[in-house]
Design a protein that fits this description.
Blueprint: E1 10-16, H1 19-33, E2 39-46, H2 58-63, E3 68-72, H3 81-102, E4 106-110, H4 114-125, E5 129-133, H5 142-153, E6 156-159, H6 162-170, E7 178-180, H7 185-189, H8 198-205, E8 214-218, H9 226-243, E9 246-250, H10 258-267, E10 276-279, H11 284-292, E11 296-299, H12 302-305, E12 315-318, E13 331-334, H13 340-350, H14 366-375, H15 400-404, E14 406-414, E15 418-425, E16 430-437, H16 442-462, E17 465-472, E18 477-478, E19 481-482, H17 513-517, H18 519-531, H19 550-558, H20 562-586, E20 590-593, H21 598-612, E21 621-624, H22 630-644
Parallel strand pairs: 1-2, 1-4, 2-3, 4-5, 5-6, 6-7, 8-9, 8-11, 9-10, 11-12, 12-13, 14-17, 20-21
Antiparallel strand pairs: 14-15, 15-16, 18-19
Helix pairs in contact: 1-14, 3-4, 4-5, 9-10, 9-13, 18-19, 18-20, 19-20, 20-21
C-alpha cells in the first residue's frame, strides 16, 4: 500500500442489489477477501436479494462464505414505475446510517439498476469515493440514463470494452481514473467450461434432456415501454410453446412490469407445461453451465449479449432493451414482432448452432487488474472529481467596453467587376466599406478577399465594433437559414445555363446567366461596340484614357442606341430564364432583384416569367430592392441573426 501513499488498509464497501450484479461483483469480492493485508471488505445487501419472490438470493452470498454486514429491505412492492421511485427513496433514507457506521474509503457500485443509483447518490453526498463497474456501455432502456448518471457521480471507473472506455472519455471523465479491465464475470466464465455439467442440466431440466437440445429463456420488462414489452413476452412464450423444446424460463427482475409478465406466464400455464421449467433463481455457477450447453438462449437480458458469447451459444435478443450493446456473431436480433412467427423463425435459424467464442467483454483477467487499480488509489488526493471538458472559447465578461461596443458583421460581395467588404452594424448601417477591382485569377481573388477582410477587421477595433462573423453575399435562404449544399457550393445561381451556345463564361462553361447579365458581361459587350465605333451616340463622350464599362452601355441604350438596347434586353431575357428555372425548382414567394442593373432588368424578367413560367408560379411578385448595398446587407443580416438568436 506504500505505492498509493495510504498507511492503512483500504476499507472497501461492496453493495449488491440483485442476482445479476452479484455475478459481476463476486469475483472482485473473492479477490479482495484473498488479500487481507491490503483490504478490509464490508458487504451490504439490499434490493431484490431479500425478496422471496425473487429467490432470496442473499443466501448464495452466504454460501460463498461472505459475511453480510448489513441487510437493507429497500424494495417497495408494486412492480410499477411508482414503486421503483419509492424504492430509490427508501434506500436513500436507510443508507446514510449504514455508511456512517461503516465509514468506507471506497464503495464499489455495479451497473445501471435503480438501486445502484441510490447507492451512488448516497455515497457521493457523504463524500465517499465511488468505483463504478461497467460504465460507458450503451443499452436501450432507462438503464442507460441511470448508468450514465452513476458515471457522473463516480470517482473511478472500471469498463469492459474499448468502446465503453471511449464513451467515458467522451463524457469528460478523467482518463487516468478509467481502467479497461474486462468484465469480472468472464474470469469465472472462461474457467468453468469443463465442470460436470450434465448433473446440473438434469437437475434443472429433467433426466431426459441432452446438451444443445434445450432453451434458456430470460426476459425482463422494458420500463420505458412496459405495455409493448409484455406483448413481446406473450409472443415469445407462444413461439416457445410452438417450438416444442424443453425450456428453462427464469422469472423476470423486479422492474416495473414484472408482475404483469408473471401473470402472462401463469395465464399460459408455463409453470405446469411439460416442456417448461419455470424458476425464480439459478445460482450463477450453475447458470453458466446451463447457457454454455444450451441449444439457444432467448430474451432480453444483458447476459445474453455479454456472458453467453464466451461459449458461442446462439442467442436471440428480443426488443430494444439491449440496443447499442456490443455483441458477437452469435446474437440474432428481433427488434420488433407483431406475431409469434418472426420469433419462431429466429428459433429455427439459431437453435443448435455453435458459434466461435467471443471475448468482446473480457479475457479472464479482470480481477487482478481491478485489485491493482484499487491499490493505486491515493486517498490523499482531493475528493472533488474533475471533469476533462474539451477546450472551449473563454466567455466574455460583462464590462463597460463590451456594453459600449457595436455588434457587427463583416459582409463580402463577390461582384463580377468589384470585390466589396463592409463592416455592418446590428442596425443595418454600413460603418465602413472597402471596394477593389476583381482580379482575373481565382488565386488573386482569394488573396485580395482575405487582405480586405483583415484590413476591415483591424479597422473594426478602431471604430469599437465587435465582429460576430463574416457573411458572403449570394445564395438561397430557406426558413431563415442559408442553404449550403453537400460541398458548400449551393446556389451558384449565376451559373444556371440558359443557352447551350451562348457566350463563354468565366467558369469555363457557355451560356450561363453571368455570361449574359453580369457587369463584366455587359462591359465586354460595351467594349465590342466601342471597338467598332458603335457605342457612342449623340449626347455621349468619353475621355481617351477612360475605361469602357457597363455604365456606358446603359447610357447608350437610354440615348437611343438600338444595339446597346438589344444587348440589355438579351441580358434581361437570360436573367428572366434563370429566374423561371428557380421558380420551377424552389417556388419562392418573392423575387427581389438588387444591384445597379436591377432596374434595367426588372421588366424583361417579368415578361419572360409571363411567357415561359407555369401558371402556378406566374403570379410571383418581382421587385427591385431600394437598398443601397443589398448584397452586403443581406450577407450581414444572416450573420447577425444567427449569432444573436437564443434558439438554434
Amino acid at each position: 500500500m506504500e505505492k498509493n501513499g495510504n498507511n492503512h488498509k483500504l476499507r472497501v464497501c461492496v453493495a449488491t442489489c440483485n442476482r445479476a450484479d452479484y455475478s459481476k461483483l463476486a469475483p472482485i469480492m473473492f479477490g479482495i477477501k484473498a488479500e487481507p493485508q491490503f483490504f478490509e471488505l464490508d458487504v451490504v445487501v439490499l434490493g431484490s436479494h431479500l425478496i422471496d419472490d425473487y429467490g432470496n438470493t442473499y443466501r448464495m452470498i452466504e454460501q460463498d462464505d461472505f459475511d453480510i454486514h448489513t441487510r437493507l429491505h429497500t424494495i417497495v412492492r408494486g412492480e410499477d414505475e411508482a414503486a421503483m421511485v419509492e424504492s430509490v427513496g427508501l434506500a436513500l433514507v436507510k443508507l446514510p446510517d449504514v455508511l456512517n457506521r461503516l465509514k468506507p474509503d471506497i464503495m464499489i457500485v455495479h451497473g445501471d439498476r435503480f438501486d445502484a443509483l441510490a447507492l451512488a447518490t448516497s455515497a457521493a453526498l457523504m463524500n465517499i469515493r465511488i468505483l463504478h463497474i461497467e460504465g460507458g456501455e450503451v443499452s436501450g432502456t432507462i438503464d442507460d440514463s441511470i448508468r450514465h448518471a452513476i458515471t457522473k457521480l463516480a470517482h473511478y471507473h472500471v469498463c469492459c470494452t474499448r468502446s465503453a472506455e471511449q464513451h467515458l472519455i467522451a463524457m469528460c471523465e478523467d482518463h487516468d481514473r478509467i481502467l479497461l479491465a474486462g468484465c469480472p464475470s468472464y474470469d469465472k466464465l472462461l474457467s468453468a467450461r469443463n465442470k460436470d455439467y450434465m448433473s446440473i442440466i438434469r437437475m434443472w431440466l429433467g433426466e431426459d434432456v441432452k446438451t444443445r437440445d434445450y432453451i434458456v429463456a430470460l426476459q425482463h420488462p422494458v420500463t420505458t415501454d412496459i405495455k409493448h414489452s409484455i406483448k413481446m413476452f406473450e409472443l415469445t412464450l407462444d413461439a416457445l410453446i410452438s417450438f416444442k423444446k424443453r425450456t428453462l424460463v427464469l422469472f423476470p427482475n423486479v422492474d416495473a412490469g414484472s408482475k404483469e409478465m408473471v401473470r402472462v406466464m401463469r395465464k399460459k400455464g408455463i409453470e405446469h407445461h411439460p416442456n417448461f421449467r419455470a424458476v425464480k433463481h439459478v445460482p450463477f455457477d450453475q447458470f453458466i453451465q446451463l447457457v454454455a450447453h444450451a441449444g439457444c438462449m432467448i430474451g432480453n437480458s444483458s447476459c445474453g449479449v455479454r456472458e453467453v458469447g464466451a461459449f458461442g451459444t446462439p442467442v436471440i435478443n428480443l426488443g430494444t432493451r439491449q440496443t447499442g450493446r456490443e455483441t458477437g456473431e452469435n446474437v440474432l436480433h428481433v427488434r420488433d414482432a407483431d406475431t409469434q412467427d418472426k420469433i419462431l423463425h429466429a428459433l429455427h435459424l439459431q437453435f443448435g448452432k455453435q458459434y466461435p467464442c467471443s471475448k468482446i467483454y473480457g479475457d479472464g483477467n479482470a480481477v487482478p487488474r481491478i485489485l491493482k487499480f484499487l491499490k493505486s488509489i491515493d486517498l490523499k488526493e482531493p475528493l472533488q472529481k474533475k471533469f476533462c471538458f474539451p477546450p472551449v472559447k473563454d466567455s466574455i465578461s460583462q464590462d463597460i467596453d463590451h456594453i459600449l461596443e457595436t455588434q457587427s458583421a463583416l459582409a463580402v460581395d463577390l461582384g463580377g467587376t468589384n470585390l466589396r467588404v463592409a463592416i455592418v452594424s446590428m442596425k443595418g448601417e454600413i460603418v465602413k466599406k472597402y471596394t477593389q477591382l476583381n482580379p482575373k485569377t481565382y488565386e488573386d481573388r482569394l488573396e485580395l478577399i482575405l487582405k480586405m477582410c483583415v484590413e476591415a477587421a483591424s479597422e473594426a477595433v478602431n471604430v469599437n465594433c465587435r465582429i460576430l462573423g463574416v457573411g458572403i453575399g449570394g445564395g438561397i435562404v430557406h426558413q431563415h437559414e442559408l442553404i449550403h449544399g453537400s460541398s458548400f457550393c449551393a446556389a451558384e445561381l449565376g451559373h444556371i445555363v440558359v443557352s447551350l451556345d451562348g457566350p463563354e463564361c468565366l467558369c469555363g462553361s457557355q451560356g450561363c446567366i453571368e455570361a449574359y447579365a453580369s457587369g463584366i458581361a455587359l462591359q465586354r459587350e460595351a467594349k465590342k461596340l466601342h471597338d467598332e465605333d458603335l457605342l457612342l451616340v449623340e449626347g455621349m463622350s468619353m475621355k481617351k484614357e477612360e475605361v469602357v464599362s457597363a455604365a456606358h452601355l446603359i447610357q447608350a441604350a437610354k440615348l437611343g442606341n438600338t444595339k446597346a438596347d438589344s444587348i440589355l434586353r438579351t441580358a434581361g431575357t437570360a436573367l428572366g430564364l434563370g429566374v423561371v428555372n428557380i421558380l420551377h425548382t424552389m417556388n419562392p414567394s418573392l423575387v427581389i432583384l438588387s444591384g445597379v442593373l436591377a432596374s434595367h432588368y426588372v421588366n424583361a424578367v417579368k415578361d419572360v416569367i409571363n411567357q415561359q413560367a407555369l401558371s402556378s408560379v406566374k403570379t410571383v411578385d418581382v421587385v427591385v430592392s431600394n437598398l443601397a448595398d443589398p448584397a452586403l446587407l443581406g450577407a450581414a443580416s444572416l450573420v447577425l441573426d444567427y449569432t444573436t438568436r437564443r434558439i438554434y
